[in-house]
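From the pipeline queue, job 12 of 40. The input is one protein chain; the requested action is below.

Action: predict structure.
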Amino acid sequence: MTKFCTNCGSNIENNQEKCLVCGKVLKYTNSPINETKDNNGNNISNDNYKRTDNNQSGSKSKIIAIILALFLGTLGMHNFYLDYKTKGIAQLLITTIGSLACGIGIFICQIWVMIDFFMLLLGKTDKDANGNLLVS
């Protein structure tokens, strides 16, 4: 029977005390970590060597994103925080360049930020640009 490391999902030999891939002291499981089922209920596995949990060190806080949208939204800071760099740059440029045109850019960005704010608040935006779930 094949055994897998519970930390990284790599194959384990019977006499190993530490995982050769991640170095963790071994706890065994008889199924790979990234095992999913298709529509017919059959087990499929794209990559047995990646973790599937969403508690990654790069996860961002939803609360911080909401606060940034509320106070610094027209400058795009919430988008920079969530790694949406293109959206952040667009909001920053529209606000700064548009403020020279009688504040029209600021008005446009305020509407955009209001939509972003409510999408974050209501949970419609639940992932950052890298696909990591936002932590509540």
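Job complete. Residues 46-55 have pLDDT under 50 and may be disordered.
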